[in-house]
Design brief:
This protein is mainly alpha-helical. It has a single domain, classed as Rna Polymerase Sigma Factor, Chain: A (Orthogonal Bundle). It is built from nine helices and two strands.
Length: about 210
């Protein structure tokens, strides 16, 4: 079978994810670094917490929605991620690693949801049918052939072990560095590379991912 060609850059961060990401409160001040915000939040500064939320919530929401494929669940997980983060922010020693640390908490929440789904299937309980796939989250205006290939990519990814799929999506769809993937997945760099390579070997049997923005 001839492999299809999809440029992962067309997938981008999930546009209009539907996750509720805009609370009232502080406007992010990009002149203030993450490390400063973390220090302020650790001292109990609620404005710093709101700024952290607004600065990083879309990144977390994009990862979570792509992995869970359910807007309602993703909304819940994003909220739980930041609640957990602010409860545990005192344990974060490197404020500069805030973005990756938040992704790690989000991925851990996703893993719990996926385990719960498997249990519900084993018990024969009904699961949500409101699945949101790559095609629905892709950049608008894609041609029907590309949309069809994104649906094929979806099916391939869903057949992968969770850890391989999570690592591959964070690396290839969200554009994270290998170090960021390892942090988000709570694994070593070598393990992250192995999971991504294993997923890539399966994906490329069906879909050829172009580099660049053509």
């Amino acid at each position: 079978m001839t492999a299809a060609v999809v440029n992962p850059l067309t997938l981008g961060p999930a546009p209009d994810s539907g996750v509720h990401t805009r609370p009232r409160g502080a406007v992010a001040d990009h002149a203030v670094g993450d490390a400063e915000l973390v220090s302020a939040a650790q001292a109990g500064d609620r404005v710093a917490e709101e700024t952290i939320y607004r600065r990083h919530v879309q990144h977390v929401a994009s990862i979570v929605l792509r992995l869970l494929r359910d807007r309602t669940e993703a909304d819940d997980v994003v909220q739980d991620t930041f609640l957990t983060a602010f409860e545990e922010i005192g344990s974060l020693r490197n404020g500069g690693a805030l973005r990756g640390w938040l992704a790690q908490i989000g991925v851990n929440q996703v893993r719990r949801r996926l385990r719960r789904r498997r249990l519900r299937r084993l018990l024969g309980l009904e699961l949500s049918s409101a699945s949101v796939g790559m095609a629905e989250l892709a950049s608008p205006g894609l041609g029907p052939e590309v949309v069809a290939e994104l649906r094929k990519l979806d099916r391939v990814l869903l057949g992968l072990p969770d850890e391989h799929r999570i690592a591959w999506v964070i690396r290839n769809i969200e554009g994270a560095s290998l170090d960021e993937v390892a942090l988000a997945c709570s694994c070593s760099l070598a393990t992250a590379k192995r999971w991504i390579a294993a997923a890539e070997s399966v994906v490329r049997l069906h879909v050829t991912l172009k580099e660049g923005g053509e």
